[in-house]
Specification:
Distance between the termini: 49 Å
Protein name: AA9 family lytic polysaccharide monooxygenase
Keywords: Carbohydrate metabolism, Cellulose degradation, Copper, Disulfide bond, Glycoprotein, Metal-binding, Monooxygenase, Oxidoreductase, Polysaccharide degradation, Secreted, Signal
Order of helices and strands: HEEHEEEEEEHEEEE
Strand content: 25-35%
Radius of gyration: 17 Å
Subcellular location: Secreted
Family: Belongs to the polysaccharide monooxygenase AA9 family.
Strand order of the largest sheet: 3-11-10-5-6-12
CATH architecture: Distorted Sandwich
Helix content: under 10%
GO molecular function: cellulase activity; cellulose binding; metal ion binding; monooxygenase activity
Amino acid sequence: MRISSSLAAATALSAASAHTIMTQLIANGVENGVGVGIRVPTYDGPITDVASEYVACNGGPNPTTPSSTVIDVTAGSTVQVYWRHTLDSDSTDVIDASHKGPVMAYMKKVTDAATDTGVGGGWFKISEDGYDSATDTWAVTKLIAAGGTQTIDIPACIEDGQYLLRGELIALHSASSASGAQFYMECAQINVTGGSGASTPETVALPGAYSATDPGILINIYQSPMPAYTIPGPSVFTC
């Protein structure tokens, strides 16, 4: 079977160091340093097994560095996280442009954000962006154009307390074959204040929220025309 030159080139790039890390959290007007309140990995590679426990907060093949910091975040506020190719990269080096796919954010209420592994139930999605067919633009492309800044609205109606805030990209350049999708995620450790507690989100488990055969995970993004794209995982929780 022959594959297109663009697909072949993208497949070759998947083996190169074209990966990414969520490095910093900006909250309440404070730009926290690299790795402050985030379990950043020592390697910028992906997780490719959706059934792995490491799909929650990374680790395993990408050993993460603990942080004792829990960052204060106001419910109803907007935070930003920075994505970078490596811990030393700047806003011009986010992720290779071939790594097209969706960008999402999840939260999980925990007792101790500095020690909770994130594995298991309790996760709810708070933002997502996928594919815009009108402009033929993927969310990762927008992220690169924004210098690696992912903007996330924290729901105003959740309970106060400590949470894990999980940013995620899924690179789909090699997703036409099994286990070809690349998952990039990190967990920030936050303490939410000012929430009304008026709503309780429905939650999912990580691993468990994704299947390797989900149409948003096992997909050939080089189809022309590109069909409507279904972002994997649950619906976005809103107040």
